[in-house]
Amino acid sequence: MSVDAQSQSVLAPGPWSKRFAAAVVILYAGLAVLPLLWIFLTGFKTPPDSIAYPPKFVFEPSLEGYVNLFTTRSRQSDDYLAGLPPPTNWVDRLVRSRNMVIAGPSKFGQRFVNSVIIGFGSTALAVVLGTLAAYGFSRFRVPLADDLLFFILSTRMMPPIAVAIPIYLMYRSLGLTDSHLGMILLYTAVNVSLAVWLLKGFIDEIPREYEEAAMIDGYTRFQAFWRVVLPQAATGIAATAIFCLIFAWNEYAFAVLLTSGEAQTTPPFIPFIIGEGGQDWPAVAAGTTLFLVPIVVFTVLLRRHLLRGITFGAVRK
Amino acid sequence: MFRPAGGAIVAEIRIENLCKEFGGFVAVRGSTLTIEDRCFFVLLGPSGCGKTTTLRMIAGLELPTSGRILLDGEDVTRRRAAERDIAFVFQLYALYPHMSVRENLGFPLRCQGMARAARRRRVEETAALLRIDHLLDRSVTGLSGGDRQRVALGRAIVRRPKAFLMDEPLGALDTEFRHLMCSELRNLHDRIGATSVYVTHDQLEAMSLADRIAVMNHGVVEQVGPPQEVYDRPATMYVADFLGSPPMNFLAFDGSVHRGDRQVRVNGAVVEVPEIHEDRAAGPLALGVRPEHVSLSDVSAVRGRVLGTDYLGTTQIVTVTTAHGSVKARVPAALPVAVDEVVGLEFRTPHLALFDAASGRALPSALYYRETTDG
Ligand SMILES: Nc1ncnc2c1ncn2[C@@H]1O[C@H](COP(=O)(O)OP(=O)(O)OP(=O)(O)O)[C@@H](O)[C@H]1O
Ligand SMILES: [Mg+2]
């Protein structure tokens, strides 16, 4: 047996191990994507198709789920429907074919906006606070720094819901329940510990000499931080922002507990989209699909940073 | 070329009783130094002796625990780094990876609010001086060690500061390139004429660059002077031992010396020394002699057995074990020397130094009060 010394180095993986790795990755990706794909497809089914047994893989696509997601409707008698002027657009036509008329918009749009405000707001706040705190811990002699960092992390040592009751009572007496500010503060508080720890690692990796050089050249510490440290921490900041956003975006337990109307986010709203005679599964699936869009877009936009961020230590030197 | 000839800008750096402690550990203890205007001053010492700490205090990156720093006679001890008009070249260059060479060079100027066109001109001038003009639009991450070094120097000189502080700037380069950069650096200094303080632990680098050297040990400045003086007339045993390769030989003995003595008895053997200027009661002493001032002679009273030889091209180092310890001699390579041969050692009197072995300090003698060092 002869080995081609040119093409097969000791460190490079052989063709079989590459194929094996590819197979594992594809299998895993398939498993991860399958539920998402099913949700995506269900969003385009009619309610009967969505609960058909055996499950339907081939079906006639319908936008009923999306229409139902964004509207509230009321059932009317045939006489009443017959007396109406003809439908002016496809939405009306679709709704009337189910013997209903549109009563008004649903709350989905507003819940979605709440999610955007609370998710991105708390992410921005957590990243800003986290960056400043991490810089402080990394560069200055903070008394009891190690203990403080431990305490900061200890907020994540139990499931946040363990403190739900105290927080609920506290929020009620502060008048923060069901308010955007309350939810932003809550998610920021949970995320800031993660942000400090992640960002401290990234900032520790940036040599102090960079700022020192800038300060000798006449910049203030803040200018040095702004012009030298931040650009180099961009990768870490992006990675941290994604993790924070994913948490705040998907958070369910506190959202159920603390919000009901005004500031309710999308996660507690979606499961309770009720149709006639039970859950309106196509509308639920449509809502879930739309709910995924912002986070996918955000992650794709920052993906380059995220990948580099996760392997930060390995590629820097 | 950067400063008007005989111009009014003076950049004399003076440190007085400078001390720095890091939580009980004393990194610098009571240094006092004057670095004259336009001087190329080298801080030399082993790793951990406090060179970087001293330099950082001068730059304003570290606050001294006690002591003063004066720039042109003005106390700047508590002043921010940005207000001292000093440039610093870091050991690892500290070039900003997110900027091109041009942006790196222009960065110190941006802060001063210099207009774009003037900035551009100054950057290009500086790049030409350092012969990196062809790299201006490259990213610094792809540069070779030498080019990075030049960019780092460029970023320091572009602002035309009063003084340059350099912390082992050649430490990361390979030997061959170091020699080249060493002479480039000296040329640059001669052209710009700004006061430079250069930190290194490499004695050859120090010798070839410096107008004056300060040798540091454990946070203490042991001696300050021109390279040759520090080498020829070491003030302490530490300095004598640190400089030279191989270092100075020490022959330990007990005895007393008197003002005017011209010879000492080293464990019975009489050795002629430069005239001694001080009385010293009996105690441990050491006779210091550099290997190049030892010759092999049949008639000498100090005798020993040859342990081995190291051939160095034009010279060889002969190691001889004597009753006073091992002595190294630098002799012509052509001289036939056999291992185990018994030889006599002759020391060249004008170059001999005597040390108080307890304190390590040199005893004052004619060696230290002579005008010239040849002979
Ligand atoms: N920020 C600090 N905190 C604690 N100790 C320090 C600090 N900076 C320096 N030291 C200590 O002070 C001593 C002197 O350090 P310094 O960096 O000045 O040495 P150096 O002469 O530059 O050595 P090297 O040649 O290794 O760079 C060292 O023992 C070092 O461990
Ligand atoms: Mg150092």
Molecular structure report:
The complex is a heterodimer of chains A (317) and B (375). With 317 residues, chain A is mainly alpha-helical. Chain A has 3 domains: 10-42; 47-106, no CATH class; 109-311, MetI-like (MetI-like fold), CATH 1.10.3720.10. Chain A has 16 helices and 4 strands. In chain A, the strands form 2 sheets. In chain A, strands 1-2 form a two-stranded antiparallel ribbon. A two-stranded antiparallel ribbon of chain A has the order 3-4. In chain A, β3 (274-275) and β4 (278-279) form a beta hairpin. Chain A is globular. Mean pLDDT of chain A is 87; it is low at 1-5 and 311-317. In chain B, the strands form 5 sheets. In chain B, strands 6-7-8-3-9-10 form a 6-stranded mixed β-sheet, sandwiched between helices. Chain B has a 5-stranded antiparallel β-sheet with strand order 15-19-16-17-18, with no helix packed on it. The model of chain B is unreliable at 1-8 (pLDDT under 50). In chain B, β4 (66-71) and β5 (74-75) form a beta hairpin. Chain B has 375 residues and is an alpha+beta fold. Chain B folds into 2 domains: 13-232, P-loop containing nucleotide triphosphate hydrolases (Rossmann fold), CATH 3.40.50; 237-374, Beta Barrel (OB fold (Dihydrolipoamide Acetyltransferase, E2P)). Chain B is 22% helix and 34% strand. Chains A and B meet through α10 and α11 of A and β6 and α2 of B. The structure holds adenosine-5'-triphosphate (ATP) and magnesium ion (MG).
